[in-house]
Design brief:
Layout: E1 5-10, E2 13-18, H1 29-43, E3 50-55, E4 60-62, H2 67-75, H3 80-96, E5 101-105, E6 108-110, H4 111-117, E7 122-125, E8 130-132, H5 147-151, H6 154-163, E9 167-168, H7 169-175, E10 180-181, H8 189-201, H9 207-216, H10 220-231, H11 234-247, H12 252-280, H13 298-304
Parallel strand pairs: 2-3, 3-5, 4-6, 5-7, 6-8, 7-10
Antiparallel strand pairs: 1-2, 8-9
């Protein structure tokens, strides 16, 4: 068991607490394994009727998978794919679990943390909840099964997937990534802006065309989104958009499989540099393999999807 996972059972409820608050409960490999072990043990235990997931500390439920650990395994030519296999298998376990799982999502709930509970039975947000799938910032694509929801979120889902934009609990409910708010009705600012510029700009299947539409739009938020998109890994944006469009026709199990196969081909390309620039050296100046969206060869993207 991981020292960063606390489990208990009381009154028929199995409780799993992510207990790594200094790292906003970022999920290390041993934490993923410990959660899976607890769920496996309780699945056939009649004393456990339901499960609750929560995160320790005031900053948030979970900042995502521990990408520094993953990048370190990759740098040492270690079994890095095992990390993602373990993560996605756990996410799928939550989706298919035979007993109800409720998750309390306060504060930062991002990346692999959001993926952990994306398919839980009941997800509760509040006025502090801040969500994102920030993978294109680090040379990756929105994974952990979350693209299943984003693909069904229309233009708002596309905006979130490509730009790594943050969103609140109200937007999460509209996206199907949350079920209720403990603080009453919450605004959904991205969906409120959808008719102003998001729908118009993100209806294309070509990321270069999306960028052009954002940059030429009269709305200041659209032009800001263009700037954000320019700062993301060009390869990651191309892969994210195609993965998102494909996820619209897949079931969750197929999305998890797609995520793993894409990650196997894509992770070594821009991910190490993205983690270095954003989380290690923190210079925010990544040297991506291709500098611009326009420079990414279509054949490279095709090869990543040739699984």
């Amino acid at each position: 068991m991981s020292p960063h996972i606390r489990t208990s059972v009381a009154d028929g409820v199995g409780s799993i607490v992510l207990d790594r608050p200094r790292a906003i409960n970022a999920l290390s490999l041993d934490m993923l394994e410990a959660i899976a072990e607890a769920l496996d043990a309780w699945a056939g235990d009649d004393a456990v009727e339901s499960v609750e997931l929560s995160g320790a500390g005031e900053r948030g439920f979970c900042a995502g998978a521990d990408v520094r650990e993953l990048a370190g395994i990759l740098a040492q030519d270690g079994p890095w794919l095992r990390f993602l296999e373990t993560e996605y298998a756990l996410d799928a376990r939550v989706w298919q679990y035979p007993k109800p799982i409720t998750a309390a999502l306060h504060g930062v709930t991002m990346g692999g943390g959001l993926g952990l509970v994306a398919h839980a039975d009941h997800r509760i947000v509040d006025s502090t909840t801040i969500m994102a799938m920030p993978e294109t910032k680090i040379g990756f694509f929105p994974d952990a099964g979350v693209s299943w929801h984003l693909a069904r979120g229309g233009a708002v889902g596309t905006h979130i997937a490509l730009t790594s934009a943050t969103f609140n609990g109200g937007d999460a409910i509209r996206l199907g990534l949350a079920d209720e708010s403990s603080d009453g009705e919450l605004p959904a600012p991205l969906f409120e802006a959808e008719g102003e510029w998001i729908e118009e700009c993100y209806s294309s299947d070509d990321p270069v065309e999306i960028l052009e539409r954002l940059g030429s739009n009269s709305h200041a938020d659209a032009r800001r989104a263009a700037t954000e998109l320019r700062a993301r890994s060009p390869l990651a944006v191309h892969v994210a958009l195609r993965a998102l469009r494909r996820a619209a026709t897949l079931d969750p199990a197929e999305v998890y499989q797609q995520d793993l196969r894409l990650a196997e081909r894509m992770l070594p390309i821009d991910f190490p540099e993205g983690v270095r620039a954003l989380l290690v050296d923190k210079d925010n100046s990544p040297e991506w393999r291709w500098s611009r969206l326009e420079d990414v060869p279509p054949a490279v993207v095709d090869e990543i999807f040739a699984y």
